[in-house]
Structures are given as C-alpha cells and as structure tokens.
Design goal:
The protein has 242 residues and is an all-alpha fold. α3 crosses α4 and α7 packs parallel to α9. The chain starts with a helix and ends in an 11-residue tail after the last helix. It is found in: Membrane. Belongs to the TMEM41 family. Keywords: Membrane, Signal, Transmembrane, Transmembrane helix.
Length: 242
C-alpha cells in the first residue's frame, strides 16, 4: 500500500512541472499587440477555438517559433495526461500551419504524448488504472490474447475505428502486455487518417459553423475506406491457435 501511494505521489511533481511550463509560456509570451492576450485554457467549443486561432495567427506573424513551441507543448500535455479534446488542437494545427506542416507535426506529437502516457501508466499509474477500469482491462486483455497472431493489425483497428477513446487505450496498453514498439507504430500510423482529416478541415476553421461539419458522412466514409485498405492483410491471416 505504501509503495502504491509513493508511486501516485510521483505524479504530482510531474504534473506540476508540465503545468508550470505551460504557465511560463503563456505568461511570459512575447509582446505583439497591447490588445492581444493569451489565456492558459484549452478551447472547449468551436467559438473558443476560432478566437484562439485568431490570436495565435497574429503571434505567428512575428513569433512563429514561439507559437510552434506553445502549440507542441499544449498538444503533448493533453496527450500525456489523457485530457479529452485532441480534435480541437488538430483543427488548430490546420488553421495555424496548414496540412503540409500541421499533419506531420501532429502525427509526431500524438505519438510523443501517447508514449509519455504509456510509460506514466506503466510506472506510476498501474494501481489507479486497474481500480477505475477493471472491466475494460479484462475485456482488452481477452481481445489481445484472441488477436495475438495479428496484434499489430488489431491495434491499428482500434486506432482507425475509435470506438474506444484513445486516451483509455493509452492508459490500458502497458497493463495488458502490449509491447511499446507495437503501441508506438499503431499510434503513429493508426491515427494518421483521423489527424489528416481534422487538420485538413482546420484549414477552413473560420468558416466552420458546427463540430458536425468535421465528421460528415463523406469524412467517415473516407476514414472507413482508408482503414479497410490498411487492415486488408489482417483478414487473410489465420489464427494458429484454432
């Protein structure tokens, strides 16, 4: 019990240091215009996102490196500590950087943040995750065993068809024996379609009127088609245990 508490207490300085870094970036932001002011809060709706994008676009005219560091830090922070709402930052990436830069950037940041989450769960969060998600852990443990002959394809399936929240998969993966190398490949490749479509939509952020505009039937069909092509080989593989 004491060992468990000690591990949990380790999360406090880690979270504090990461949060302090974001505060530092925001409150010591370079001077641009006296009317512009950054706030340390993540957008929770489309209107807030559009307002934030306008402010950051003004900053990027003279301080593009600062905007890149701030965006990257916020993105990894959300992924590392399993904070919902990555879709907003993907849209923001499209508005700020465009597809050409925003897409590879978000793929790298997604993989980095998910990796930090994986190792945090493995090293200090095991008991907490097991306490809150026992049924999910057992369910995915069984699924991993069933798909052990094609595990990488199963992991890609989970990412390309996000039926289960990605943050939950990040937390559970190290506890059910998923190797880190497979986890990393699945995150980086499996979330590419989702990242790309969100970032592509983000280029037209100012014209969006609803979050429903992102996940239209056309968009979902595109994601399904990409996933079917990527996962096609898995249907040809036989389970040696049967």
């Amino acid at each position: 019990m004491a060992l468990t508490l000690n591990k949990i207490w380790l999360l406090i300085p880690i979270i504090s240091a990461a949060t302090a870094w974001l505060y530092f970036l925001v409150y010591f932001a370079p001077s641009v215009d006296g009317t512009l002011k950054l706030k340390l809060e993540f957008p929770s709706n489309l209107k807030e996102l559009q307002s934030l994008a306008q402010v950051l676009k003004e900053y990027s005219k003279t301080h593009s490196l600062y905007v890149l560091v701030l965006f990257s830090s916020a993105y990894v922070y959300k992924q590392t500590f399993s904070i919902p709402g990555s879709v907003f930052l993907n849209l923001l990436a499209g508005a700020l950087f465009g597809v050409k830069m925003g897409f590879p950037l978000c793929c790298v940041l997604t993989a980095a943040g998910a990796s930090f989450c994986y190792w945090l769960s493995f090293s200090v969060g095991k008991e907490v995750v097991e306490k809150h998600y026992p049924d999910k852990i057992q369910y995915f443990q069984n699924k991993v065993e069933e798909n052990s002959h094609q595990l990488v394809y199963y992991l890609l399936f989970l990412r390309m068809f996000p039926i289960t929240p990605n943050m939950l998969i990040n937390l559970i993966s190290p506890l059910i024996g998923i190797p880190f190398n497979m986890f990393l490949v699945a995150v980086f490749i499996g979330l590419m379609p989702y990242n790309f479509l969100c970032i592509q939509t983000g280029e037209m952020l100012a014209s969006l009127t609803s979050m429903d505009d992102i996940f239209s039937y056309e968009t979902l069909l595109k994601m399904a088609a990409i996933a079917c092509v990527a996962l096609g080989p898995s249907f040809l593989m036989k389970n040696p245990n049967k």
